[in-house]
Design goal:
Elements: E1 9-13, H1 21-35, E2 39-44, H2 50-55, E3 59-62, H3 65-70, H4 74-81, E4 85-89, H5 98-105, E5 108-111, H6 125-139, E6 144-148, H7 151-160, E7 168-170, E8 188-192, H8 201-215, E9 221-225, H9 231-241, E10 247-250, H10 256-262, E11 265-268, H11 270-279, E12 282-290, E13 293-299, H12 305-310, H13 322-330, H14 334-348, H15 350-361, H16 368-383
Parallel strand pairs: 1-2, 1-4, 2-3, 4-5, 5-6, 6-7, 8-9, 8-11, 9-10, 11-12
Antiparallel strand pairs: 12-13
Helix pairs in contact: 1-15, 4-5, 8-9, 8-13, 11-14, 14-15
Length: 384
């Protein structure tokens, strides 16, 4: 039986194994690959998702990227050299492993999970300049390419960087499909998020939805679940905007899917949007109004699925008016929720993600220099 990702072994170099959308994407997709007979290796710094990866049968090699670069990338070349294809996260430090990984494996993709200039939020311009050079180099590589999240994400990079037409290929966010149970209530509003500046629209919008619901006489309460340095800011926001007893905070859940299933309305971004929709929850996707702050959102409905959920970088029609968002939430019927589940299954399941991966790497040639080296090594073994 052919392994789901089209090769026997996949090597994946990640910025982090801390819980988050890009981490879960690869842990789950590689776990899906291993469950069907494939093999996989992840190189990344230690993080809480490592135990799940190992439980899936993925080989995990804890890697400090600064130390690995100083050591001449020996760990990368060893792991990538054993793989049929290698993927490298386009993020700080780890992205510098792209060239040695490509050289060792012969085929490699850079994987972008963020906006073109997102790194400028945390690092000096020189880091962004280097990141752009690596991105454009990978997009022009005959034995590789760059994975993006969808059509809108692709357009952003085509507008921001100098990339060839066929240098970008789509790998949609993909999730395991949980059981479906259409939600009928609106009592608990759950904001499931990492507490960091770029995720601030999630608790901000959830607070305003809760406030408006209470003003309308609805029996609703807010739960904010997640970890991160911005938690204090979010707690202060709740204390300022909501009455006592109408909100509470939780640590990041050990089982995010189970926690989503307990809620009635979910405010989220990224893969959490897909997970909640697959469960049958009502979902509001939070977005920033602009770079200066503020939150707005879109209610996930079947007719706007592509722009709101399938591609996290889509540009749907949004509203900053929580009253309008409530009105749209309340018009969702069970048939709408079932149709959303079918859309997730068709476009963003693990099977859909694996098929996109296979299609993308099909026909990508190995570097000729690597082929010659491997043929020479094989001949030398035969001659002994």
């Amino acid at each position: 039986m052919r392994a789901p990702l089209g090769v026997k072994r996949v090597c994946c170099l990640l910025h982090s194994l801390d819980p988050g959308g890009s981490t879960w994407q690869w842990v789950r997709l590689l776990g899906h690959h291993v469950a069907a007979g494939g093999e996989a290796t992840i190189l990344a710094p230690q993080g809480r998702a490592a135990s799940m990866a190992e439980a899936f049968g993925i080989e995990v090699v804890f890697t400090d990227w600064e130390a690995e670069e100083a050591a001449g990338w020996s760990g990368v070349t060893d792991a990538a050299g054993r793989a049929g294809f290698t993927v490298v996260h386009w993020d700080y430090r780890v992205m510098h492993a792209y060239e040695p990984a490509l050289g060792a494996c012969g085929r490699a993709a850079l994987v972008a999970h963020q906006a073109p200039r997102q790194l400028l939020r945390w690092f000096e311009p020189a880091v962004m300049t280097g990141a752009r050079a690596i991105f454009e180099r990978a997009a022009a590589e005959r034995s590789g390419f760059v994975f993006v999240r969808g059509a809108a994400h692709r357009r952003r990079f085509e507008q921001a960087f100098d990339v060839p037409r066929n240098g970008l290929r789509t790998l949609p966010p993909s999730i395991p499909l949980p059981g479906f149970q259409a939600g009928g209530g609106t009592e608990e509003i759950l904001a499931l998020t990492r507490h960091s500046p770029e995720k601030a629209p999630i608790p901000e919008l959830a607070v305003e939805l809760t406030r408006r619901g209470l003003e309308r006489g609805r029996s609703c309460r807010l739960s904010v679940a997640g970890d991160g340095p911005g938690r204090g800011w979010a707690e202060a926001l709740c204390a300022d905007r909501l009455p006592p007893g109408s909100w509470r905070f939780e640590d990041a859940p050990a089982d995010a899917i189970a926690r989503l299933g307990e809620a009635d309305v979910v405010v989220a971004q990224g893969t959490t949007t897909l997970e909640a929709a697959a469960l049958g929850r009502r979902v509001v996707v939070a977005r920033s109004i602009d770079e200066s702050g503020g939150a707005e959102g879109a209610v996930l409905r079947p007719e706007v699925y592509e722009d709101v959920a399938q591609d996290a970088f889509g540009q749907p029609e949004t509203s900053a008016d929580p009253g309008k968002l409530w009105n749209r939430l309340l018009t969702l019927r069970e048939d709408d929720l079932r149709q959303l589940r079918r859309l997730v299954e068709a476009n963003n399941s693990l099977d859909a993600g694996a098929a996109a991966f296979r299609d993308a790497i099909a026909g990508v040639p190995r570097r000729r220099s690597l082929l010659r080296a491997r043929m020479r090594a094989g001949l030398e073994r035969l001659a002994r």
